[in-house]
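Supplementary notes (optional reading)

For those who missed the lab, this is the record we used. Protein: Rho-GAP domain-containing protein. Length: 97 residues.
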Amino acid sequence: VVKRLKTCLDQGTVDHSDFSMDPHAVAGALKCYFRELPEPLMTSELYNDWFKAAGEKDLTEKLERFKELLKKLPPENYNNLSMFTFSPSCQQTAVQD
């Protein structure tokens, strides 16, 4: 099912009704997509910085570090990440900050 969904996505011919009842197929296709990216979504260059920010005890400081790291991502990576993690209202705020 995952291979069929991936093929449909690659060809731009997805019939959502074929896959809407199988969340595992959608999740599998998404994992496959992330694995096939030319570089990690959060970038290898910023890998250690993400972990340092995640380990920050103070929530305000942690959020500030995450904002700074998001600004350092290549635009393509940021856009990909925002499609999967931010609500539309958060996207507006993140871009404006």
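If you only remember one thing from this example: The longest helix spans residues 59-72.
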